[in-house]
Amino acid sequence: MAATQQDVSVKQYMLDIGERASQAARLMSAASTANKNNALNYLAELLMQHQTQLIKQNQLDLQAGKERGLDAALLDRLELTPARIQSMAEGLQQIANLQDPVGEISEVSSRPSGIQVGKMRVPLGVIGIIYESRPNVTADAAGLCLKSGNAVILRGGSEAIHSNRAIGEYIQQALIKAGLPETAVQVVATIDREAVNELLRMDRYVSVIIPRGGKGLIERVTAESTIPVIKHLDGNCHVYLDKQLDKDKALSIAVNAKTQRYGVCNAMETLLVHKDIAAEMLPRLKDEYQNHQVELRGCENVKQILSDINLASEQDWFEEYLAPILAIKIVGNVNEAIDHIEKYGSHHTDVIVTENFSTAQKFLREVDSSSVMVNASPRFADGFEYGLGAEIGISTDKLHARGPVGLEGLTTQKFVVYGNGNIRE
């Protein structure tokens, strides 16, 4: 089937963006820390100075979203308030205060030949980010890519197009003022879905794609991209309460893991309880969860203790509810807990609550997730909490970046060699 003129124009538009980004990436790789920090601070100032204009553009998106029938949760994520704009600005200032990883040389060793071999941290190049709903991602992602010396192509959802374009204009103003190429950050201005298809095939220019959004978006990007993808699928996180535990500690962790926030990827979705403590712990937990209006769904053994809760289905063990719903299962030992996590989990974050060191170490070794914790809430699986300062997402992949992806995750390493006229015999 022949391409239409519109298809051709979108293709050329995206190729032009890719070419400009590639050229900017070369300049960004050599940009000074001072210039990058200046751009971040200038952008923070611009966002605060132009709150009224930003909110005006955001209102256009909100109105269109209401007309399209977006639900309340999506509209909430879409909205820019003065507090959220301030948070964006503060986030950029925090990124400016982080240590610059680019150019860092490590692991230098002397070889018998007389050469010295080390590794230098360098930017990835051009990063393509495809995301939905939240316009704050435009500033956050731009800030992280900028500080790590990359160029970035940002393709937000059509529901936030006015907000994203406005933020993109301020980003380019900040780059120019800091003496950096304005094409280091480009917001895709078209809402044509073909732009995403083109971006996923631009391996000549783009080094990596990072999707941020729902499972459908991430699965589509992973299936269709010819470019490596740093992906985060489900956040089906587990907490396992071992038979040897501090009961008050366990209660606090299990409640916080589920109720501190519901619609986040590092909230607990399944609670696993050792059979020896289930009769004592489950009624106490039920009382706490009822106080938070959490719906409980349990296996048949749980139902024998908590007879008035719903029976969990097989599908419940796979679910990332992102809601006040919790699946509970009784297991016979730590091996059963690990087997359950391996079968149903998403390799995001899993927790054991135990006072037995050997059991804890077994869990740490054998659970194959990006974060594995002992006696702590999974809600700590976060770039800021890990001391990364900020994150662009949480990767459940095994290669390149795993877990919260901060500045270092947006760079790679190359070998560097120092010699003094050395030749190989």
How would you describe the overall organization of this protein?
This protein has about 425 residues and is of the alpha/beta class. The protein has 14 helices and 16 strands. It has a 7-stranded parallel beta sheet with strand order 10-9-11-8-7-12-13, with helices on both faces. Strands 5-4-3-6 form a 4-stranded parallel beta sheet, with helices on both faces. The protein has a 3-stranded antiparallel beta sheet with strand order 1-2-16, with no helix packed on it. Helix 3 packs antiparallel against helix 7. The chain starts with a helix and ends in a 7-residue tail after the last strand.
> What ranges have pLDDT less than 50 throughout 5 or more consecutive residues?
1-5
The number of helices is 14
- Mean of pLDDT: 94
- What's the helical proportion of residues? 40-55%
* End-to-end separation: 60 Å
Q: Characterize the overall form.
A: globular
Compute the CA-based radius of gyration. 24 Å
Structure summary, number of beta strands: 16
Strand order of the largest sheet: 10-9-11-8-7-12-13
